[in-house]
């Protein structure tokens, strides 16, 4: 007789948020590390970034593939973990093989990434303003700084030297990574507090209903 397997319950909201939080923390930690290397080793950083990024993408792809095969049955459809993992591994191998060619345009690619993340930060600032957050203007200042750095890196004013440009981009990555880490931890704490408050209210409601039910029986 075949043994029945009990399917594990799907992840709740807090578990999903925790997984997303850890992934975002790793991404921003990598951005900070790359920024530090760009500031410390501006002369040899291009090839090193391509090689490091290729290795990280390969590793990340392997992790995504492993997680896909470990995913609960209810969460398989729509996850695209296998496709994402294979794509990351393929791009990682491409970077490792062609690091010298891609190293020549890595500063442009990083400048574009900085500008894109700056636009996202700008939208988040306006979203916080609409939500009447008391510190929305702090996010706006950070977004404006990032937009300025991104445009500066793309335009390359005053015929700035490549090494100086790389150091500017590195500072931008460090600033962006630290900013995002602080934002992630702050939002995570707010969501955790909100979940706890909702749970507390639900527990109080259950106690009230139980007490009212017992009173009716008496």
The structural class is mainly alpha
Tally of DSSP helical segments: 7
**Spatial extent as radius of gyration:** 23 Å
Distance between the termini: 50 Å
In round numbers, the mean pLDDT is 75
The low-pLDDT segments are 1-10
Helix content: over 70%
Total number of β-strand segments? Answer: 0
Give the overall silhouette: flat
Structure, explained:
The model is unreliable at 1-10 (pLDDT under 50). This protein is mainly α and 218 residues long. Helix 1 runs antiparallel to helix 7 and helix 2 (45-70) runs antiparallel to helix 3 (81-97). The chain has helices at residues 13-40, 45-70, 81-97, 99-102, 106-130, 136-155, 162-217. It is flat, with a radius of gyration of 23 Å. 81% of the residues lie in helices and 0% in strands.
Task: Describe, in short, the structure shown.
By secondary structure, this protein is mostly helical. It has helices at residues 13-40, 45-70, 81-97, 99-102, 106-130, 136-155, 162-217. It is built from seven helices and no strands.
Which tags fit this structure?
single chain, 218 residues, mainly alpha, 81% helix
Ordered list of secondary-structure elements with their pairings:
Blueprint lengths: L12 H28 L4 H26 L10 H17 L1 H4 L3 H25 L5 H20 L6 H56 L1
Helix pairs in contact: 1-7, 2-3, 5-6, 5-7, 6-7
